[in-house]
Here is the input.
Amino acid sequence: MMPLAESKPLAGRERPADLPEKIWEIFAHGGDFRPADQEPFWELVGLQDIPAGLLAILESPAYAPHVLESAAEEKHLNSEAEALHEQLYGNVYYPPALRHQLLKRYQAIGAKYRMRGLYPGSSERRNVS
Here is the structure.
């Protein structure tokens, strides 16, 4: 079984721009992704109900090779958002220059949205694991 970080998209195919939003749709339905031995080399887990159209899009040749990598990146950014939030709003003092750097990264990844279970730039509540 291939770890999430080692999944490689097919050469010459770019990741669709709306893939992170589609990944968040799966998270919103309580689902997650894990590697699989058969094409598309990932499977959905933890889902009770998912729109059939969304699944068809993710299994399409344009999306399927990039799903595991994108899901892993979104989970990593969510973890980073939590850590940055704790650093910025916790009880530890950081010098102004370091605090400014932390705040820039916090804003760059849309951490205030991620901390609320929202897709960055969205106003709709999401249930993210």
